[in-house]
Structures
1.
Amino acid sequence: MLLRHTTDEVLERTALTVNPAKTCQPIGAMYAALGLHNCLPHSHGSQGCCSYHRSTLTRHYKEPVMAATSSFTEGTSVFGGQANLLQAIQTIFGVYNPDVIAVHTTCLSETIGDDLVQIIAKAVAEGKVPAGKHVIHCNTPSYVGSHVTGFSSMTKALVTYFADPSAEKSKKINLIPGWVEPSDMRELKCLAHKLGIEIVMYPDTSDVLDAPQTGKHEFYPRGGTTVDQIKSSGGSIATLGLGLSSSSAAVEALQTKCGVAGETLELPIGLQATDRFIDKLRTLAGVTVPDAVTDERGRLLDMIADMHQYVHGRRVALFGDPDQLVSLTEFLTLLDMKPVYIVTGTPTPQFENRIKTALGGNVPEAKIKAGAQADMYLMHQWIKQETVDLLIGNTYGKYIARDENIPFVRHGFPILDRVGHSYFPTVGYDGAMRLLEKILGVLMDRQDRDAPEERFELTM
Amino acid sequence: MADILRERERQVYRKGQQQAFQLDCEKQSVAGSVSQRACVFCGSRVVLYPIADALHIVHGPIGCASYTWDIRGALSSGPELHRLSFSTDLQEMDVVRGGEKKLYAALCELIDAHKPKAAFVYATCIVGVIGDDVEAVCKRASMEKGIPVLPVHSEGFKGTKKDGYRAACDALLQIVGTGPVDDVSPLSINILGDFNLAGETWMIRDYYSRMGVQVVSCITGDGRIDDIRRAHGAALNVVQCSGSMTYLAKSMEEKYGIPFLRVSYFGVDDLSKSLYDVARHFKDKEMLQRTQSMVREELQRIMPIIADYRRALEGKRAAIYVGGAFKAFSLVSALRLLGMKTVMVGSQTGNKDDYEQLRELCDEGTIIADDSNPLELSSFLEEKDVDVFIGGVKERPIAYKLGIGFCDHNHERKEALAGFEGMVNFAREVYGSVMSPVWRLTPRKRGNPLEVVK
């Protein structure tokens, strides 16, 4: 029992986080920046930050992840990081030749007070940024928010640096996908394509973090949104953001800067959230939904109908990032399951309200917590008080799943011990089918494993 | 051939070049390079992490704790407190007002709940800047709770991983010398610098017990505080992973007069030599005989297996990129035992002596690189047409993208690679990856198979 220390008595903690259900801002900024074509993310801080983020992203995606660092030293912490960043910009354009350097800060550079706007302006003035190349930045102090905040900030930075208010007007729709997997981004593009809608989507990590084996190590894989595409988003007819926590900031910035009307929906995970997504796209673009998509929905509905009796009433604990949790909760509720414990380490205003909306008046006993001390330890304590039938969350859930003997579906970031998440989406109707398949798989495997011989059945 | 950063020209060497051998190393990475290096905190954390009955609390914002939560397969035969993640999760107001109170409260809470034998408090970047007096908080908690509470000065920016090793050793030195040593045999050692990845310390302990050597403490694989307290009673320190533990060994030599030996448990040559060196140190005839018969017995068992793998691997080419250079020496000779040639070898933190030794060990034409980056590494791999790359987590996908086999010789090894059995595991792993049928389908060597079909 690796978690034998966990007690069922929940005491008020003020100073301590145990087994966190979040990580720090910079990794989110790095992930978002990887969704920009020919972009090298840059970590303005100590070498370790960059190394940890690259390692974690590599473990999650099984892909090379490239990013540079300002390599702070003791001197830097006293005299500031300007010299390091200026040198870094020169080195990066000279050696790695990206179109864009996307700088994010760290707790260290934030605390010593480096002014990124001023440093970047100085780099430009000194001719360190070649013509047609760009250096962008966002502030990601690790002691505020979480990795989701960092993702949101870098996505917003793409707007503030690139979206062009005077871009030629087009009938395109901007799609801000939120923190989802490359597979999900690919699926979102595919759905828009099926509807016959032209979109500009950013960030887009498909073909970057799910790149095919080509026999080459592409320092910049072919995917990612180009700067020109983002520029053009200033002339689109509307913006649709997905995931309130990760996309709202960019959607609002685009509205303010370029006057593109914007709206943000919850992530299209599960049937109803996908319905709203498709419906919104349809009305914005003035198209009809093709049969192919209606049929996808029909197949999902059919699968739910076929299998509803196997999931009905099952208690579920879920943890992870707010946007994912809200939509998962709604889907689980549709399946007539009971999401009873919902925890995110990301401080999220309105989290409880969003979850309650997703629950739609069901499961009044649900316990919901976000932010400080909302960690895996707390979730485990709740489970010890009254157990659940299913756990959904990132790889770190495996300790609880094992100790409490609970079927476990991996979902979220990071997943360090399984593959599939980069290739098979969970957004859209097909994505919901995959989620349901995984849920049924673990529940029925458990039933088979635990059934006494005389009750072990061929057909279930 | 990719451009090597101009400032880095002197950090890459090709054996056989006319120029005199002078590899620049122990240098700061060039700002803006995609370095594979980590930081001071990382160094401290990996060294101390395996001490299983101690509390490890990371003082700083959440990231440093998240990224190092149970990240190393350092196994414990008993308590597993080290595998949990504790953080003060500093917030904006803490940065403004200081985090001392929070740290104190967190320490009290944890020590009361878990009753650890000691606590390590890792100071991260930001703690060094906001000026928390971690030392004072630790002292107070230690007084009140009656266990050693040790600050680890591991602010990320204060150097490289190596400085982190040193900070870890400084914390350990405060524990050594505080336990009873009356029952320690004169034929006794401390195992320094093995971290029990995949249970390697257990195998090594077993060799020593078969030799008749008492192991007083393992620092830090499957480590226990009470053992480390008694470490000063041992007659000899046996140091592997010289990068992390030589400092501790030297300090113990100065303070307690304990001599030390450098060893390596990787590859049969280095392993056998190491075990003999220890036996010879004690000038005990019977021990030497026991060692000889153990080594003979083990070799008789494994060499036929190795020979089988060697038949398939003969002439294949390997590249090595590891954290500390010391490990690379053993890898070069272990690969040689498999009939393989090392055509490229590098490390994140090697020093002059390390690289000089590597140069002597390697064949003509071998590339030697310090603090390399992915661009360089992939160009070396292609240029030398490598069959297997040996490295860590960030190197693995680069090899696979190029259509090259890979073996993790870092934290993510899943099988023991040390000891005699480890040599068999290593051979099997290298063989499994080099010979995988998947590479026959990858475009780099065979062209695009789909085009061939057309």
2.
Amino acid sequence: MTDAVHPVAVIAPPRSRNGAAALLRAVVRNRLARVGLVIVVALCAIAIFAPVLAPYSPYDQDLYRVLAPPSTVHWLGTDNLGRDLLSRLLFGTRVSLFVGVVSSLISAVVGVVIGLFSGFKGGAVDALIMRVTDAFLCFPPLIFILAMSAVLGPGLQNVMLSFALFGWTIFARIARGQVLLVRELPFVEAARSVGIPPMRIMYRHILPNIAPPVLVAISIGIGTAILIESGVSFLGLGVQPPLASWGKELRVGFTYLSAAPLFSIAPGVMISLAITAFNFLGDGPRDALDPRLRGDGVRR
Amino acid sequence: MGKYIGIRLAHALVVLAIVVVLVFVIARLIPGDAIMAAMAGSVDLHDPSVVAKVRHQYGLDQPIFVQFAVWLGRFVRGDWGTSIGTGERVLDMFARRLPVTLELFLGATVWSIAVGIPAGIIGALKRNSTLDMAVTAGAMVGVSVPAFWEAIVLIYLFAVLLPVFPPSGYVPLSDGWLANLRAMVLPTFVLGTHSGGLLARYVRSSLLEVLGQDFIRTARAKGFSETAVIVKHALKPSMIPVVTVIGLSWGGLLAGAFFVEVIFAIPGLGRMSVEAIFQKDYPVMQATLIVVSLNVLLVNVLVDILYGYLDPRVRVRG
Amino acid sequence: MNASLAGKAGPQALLSVRDLTVEFAIDAGVITAVNGVSFDLNAGEILAMVGESGCGKSATALALLRLIADPPGRIVGGEVRFRDRDLLSVDETEIRDIRGNRIAMIFQEPMTSLNPVYTLGRQLGEPLALHKNLGGETLLAKCIALLESVSIPEPQQRLQSYPHQFSGGMRQRVMIAMGMSCDPDIVIADEPTTALDVTIQAQLLELLKAQVEKRRAALLLITHNLGVVARYADRVNVMYAGRIVESAGADDIYAAPRHPYTIGLLRSVPRLDRPVSEKLAPIEGQPPNPLDLPKGCPFHPRCPFAIDKCCAEAPR
């Protein structure tokens, strides 16, 4: 577990003081990131306006029309209880986005705090925290969450909680990396020698530099959270009925694969679309901000 | 080089200790009643003496540190407990299913290397061409599409619509290697997609960066052909960071295996673990967590050491 | 620039460059880094190309061997005659045969010009292996001899080491050895000492000169250091904004510079034999923006002798 070699964690501070603006520019300039942004915005719109957009309530059952193929009445057909698939998917957007965003944000906050602390303290405390981070990273996220769901029980809150329990690690690394970089800079030493309290230094110099890579990581984190939530729901341990979630729909759909293939295809498309969009959004600017900092003396 | 390995190992040991404690904590967090409930089928829980006996049998009546020590001791000696669900020795269960999962992993790795690396190289060499866009987009999609959905789609396409491969099920090698391979094509492909996509991306960006270096210009100035320049001078430096990608994606590979095994009904470690989680079969769960995390730890340490071996500059820095 | 300023073409110039033009396409537009450059290089002479950063001297050198990165650069015109062939129009096989073999190049950045993951020995031996088909023991012996010729101690051990284990000066020696290995007719050294300490610079240049003289090769030395020019060069080309503005023998340039830019350059060098209180005399103004060169003579905005005509056309 080398700190120096982890591509995500070691990102050079952007040159402009206004890191967020630079990030925005990087997003807009990158083609893939633009696509991602458009899709993300669309998904958010769907989530917000689901009640308006959905032709039916996701809970209305029509037992005469079970597993119906697509038609003008039900654009995507119906599920095994006669509920309109399209509506269920549209409402599922809410669940997935909610879980994704909340999980990622909690991880970010927890992780950044821990990372800042670790970076500032340095020494043995820092080393120990880094080993703990490494330890958490030994568990593939999915497996960790599955285990936690056995421990805490199924349900969305537990999924979000479990995600935060390991998600903080990436953010901690990023934050710590930035602290290490900035700490050594002459002007920070100068500031300290003049008596400016460390809190103020952190606020004015470190936080702005952290923002871009953290934002990127949040975006990718949302993608990961959605992936995990759908995976966990697919296995039956996430969202509980009657809530609609993409993963859960996929689970049911799978059992009817030959009878109603759309039931399996549609939810998956939504999941993939969402994950891809957040990944594009996060990855595009990452190339611009990027790990040229391999510290190997090679000219960048 | 020795110092480099030494430091890595020291770190790894600390991490190992923390991991072990974590696993223990997680497993012990399972509410006792849950364990009881899982066993409800086999014993009569209304009788307090039976409950007490069961608790004693599983050591649940001891103080927590003692439990930890006992458990650790047993684990190291190979006594991984017995499955609450099947009553089998956990170690035996692992042994039986390991080869199956191993085959899955091997196949997936073959796919990801065979497709990912060439794709990444092509993408870098034909930068910004349509081919490159295809590679980049493909890699991103490969990374983003969930394994379980990809499995479903592929099953539909190649097992339901066009019955080329079996939709699920595992055929042991003893029953014929052709049937075995046929059953493994889809699962290994699905599992290999994610890491293949990662590989393609990293290979591409690594190669691009290397191609921009001065020493490539020197190589050209010596009179080498473009191909020779790439093969002789660009490939080795660009492959080195790729090694770390393998380490990074290992965890994802493990997690993916869980899904693939469940969907394709392959009797490997992943499926066993998922079932154990549903049944709250905590000896199996514990063992799984340890095996998985140890595995990831080991792979990462190996990758670090390998990196030091490949990149002469790293050894000096330690 | 017409041919008369291209230098005294001796009996027959070894390398003859005519109207070389190189463009670079960047986001903001097209830069003509090398604009109709013409000069000759005679066998056995040391020709210096002098100019500020960005004047096009490196691009000229790279163009000679067709090493311009395409994209974003392109050689759009001109002729480079070497041994009765135009290097700009020969096919790939021929130019590769010439690179490292008949014409060798030594680059500026010793830190990054060597491949970090291969041993020095392997890299040193590559030109010989490639062009002279040497291998095994013979190659090893030659490499040791090469290292000895550039005064690197313990050559046998050094061959097994990696570039990062060497200092910049030593790496540059290896680069020189590498360049000389196939006995080239021409050596192009692109600011070989700029990235190094001053003390090392002198040693290295002496070494380079000795090597070149020993093999009777011609040296095209690119530098921005006028002191270096004075000491080592036989002839000098002064470049500004992609063009050669003056070309003369080294002695002549110092004794009787003709172009205002050259005059300005020479005057701006602080000298040890002047009183300390004398003010520095820089050339007024800034180097031009390559995207937006002044019309006519590119130097006219900064030229103390500028007249109206200078805005319209370049001097002859």
